[in-house]
Amino acid sequence: MASKANKPELIVNGKRLDGRDFGDLRSLTIEASVLRNADGSAYLEWGNNKVLAAVFGPREATPKHMQDPAKAIVKCRYAMAPFSSIGEHGRTGPNRRAMEISKVTQEAFENTIMLTDFPGSEIDIFIEILQSDGGTRAAGITAASVALASAGIHMKDLIYAVSVGKIGEHLVLDLNMIEDNYSDSDMPMAFSPKDEKVLLLQMDGDFSKEEVARAMRMGLDAGKVISKVQKDALLAVYSKAAAGQKQENGA
Amino acid sequence: MRNIVMPGDIVAQMPMQLENAYVDEGKTYSKILGMYEEGAKLIIPLEGAWNPRIDDLVVGVVVSAKNFVYEVDLSSFMRSILIGGKFDTRTYKPGEVIEAIVKDVEDRRTIILDRPRTLYGGSLLNVKAVKIPRIIGKNDTMIGQIANATKCTIVVGKNGNIWLKGGDIALATYAIKKVENEAHTSGLTEKIKVMLENSSK
């Protein structure tokens, strides 16, 4: 695992290992409504991350003693596939790390979904990491947000998440696995783009007060790109249905 | 003018009482993925669960019967019950398909049904509840032409369950599924009409 002894040179000639600038995102593509049996779903590829998110609900909350007569409950399950990662990182199964990520994702969405619109129900979010390369919790939240929208769940906003790290004195956006392991610190965060509210903020390592402000600004700027990809993914579902119908008429 | 809105998209710069929208700091935002009609000031959901209203016609399956109180599965997150007895001497067995009217929605959690009618035989089709208004059409035009062309008896429940009996059920199912998939496009009644005419030849 990561140690100071075998730390690689992460920044060479002002560029990162994969040739990106400090403020560049990896390539991001999202496809909405990919699963037939789920109420809403999304498939995301963010660099080498491959994430599948599915949403069920609102449906009757079980077990019944967990029902809230005033609002819906949100359940989230983040899981890594057994074949998703290299080495020890992110083992499959309900381990400490997966439970933590499930919890922070759930809390991010509890503050986004309009829970009082569906009293007594539950909304299930399943995030499955098929291939991981750093920043999977951010990728999971970004995908789940699209899946929730495609399920028609009432939400305040289409949220996204992104991570910012520190390598030496440089702040870098959207860390990949090697950078994540050997960087001095990293900070995944989720935002609501409408009013720039913070829904998730975790930090590993240390940032100065001024660096946190700069990192958040980087995340918010990158969010404009991420939000656009999310919206295009949802729009594509409906333009695709319209195109399919044109072909049928032509034939 | 119709355009697709996402959750968090601004629909008006002033506070407005709109269904499927919310007001925050004096502005109105959409809370669903839907189509916003500027003229009619309406957000039509593209996806989502059925929002029960009083006087909605629904189709469901009886799941339990106890002391003239019947629980009906309407494929909704809300529980729905039908209270029989008193003047109503009819009984319903679990597994029977019924149509009924929503009499009341209690605490937005329990749907009370009234005026039931058993639907004998036939088959049940489940579609997305948000597409039902399009399947019915203005003044029943859409469902009317499907029923005429296929000679089916069709009961459309607002909850997304559709009951069909007799006639060309396969063609009717195909037509309904086509409307469901293309509900957001325009000129659909005409397209379905052409499709039905071609199929019956």
Describe the structure.
The complex is a heterodimer of chains A (251) and B (201). Chain A is of the alpha+beta class and 251 residues long. Chain A has one domain (18-245): GHMP Kinase, N-terminal domain (Ribosomal Protein S5, domain 2). Chain A has four helices and eleven strands. In chain A, the strands form three sheets. A five-stranded mixed sheet of chain A has the order 3-4-5-7-6. In chain A, helix 1 crosses helix 2 (136-150) and helix 2 packs across helix 4. The model of chain A has no long low-confidence stretch (mean pLDDT 90). Chain B is of the alpha+beta class and 201 residues long. Chain B folds into three domains: 2-45, OB fold (Dihydrolipoamide Acetyltransferase, E2P) (Beta Barrel), CATH 2.40.50; 57-119, Nucleic acid-binding proteins (OB fold (Dihydrolipoamide Acetyltransferase, E2P)), CATH 2.40.50; 123-200, K Homology domain, type 1 (Ribosomal Protein S8, Chain: A, domain 1, 2-Layer Sandwich), CATH 3.30.1370. Chain B is 20% helix and 38% strand. Chain B has four helices and 14 strands. In chain B, the strands form four sheets. Chain B has a five-stranded mixed barrel. A three-stranded antiparallel sheet of chain B has the order 1-5-6, with no helix packed on it. In chain B, strand 5 and strand 6 form a beta hairpin. In chain B, helix 2 runs parallel beside helix 4. Chain B starts with a strand and ends with a helix. The model of chain B has no long low-confidence stretch (mean pLDDT 90). Chain A binds chain B through residues 39-40, 57-60, 69, 114, 118-121, 149-158, 192-195, 231, 234-235, 238, 241-242, 245, 249, and chain B through 4, 6-8, 20, 22, 24, 29, 31-33, 45-49, 77-79, 107-109, 130, 181-182, 184-185, 191.
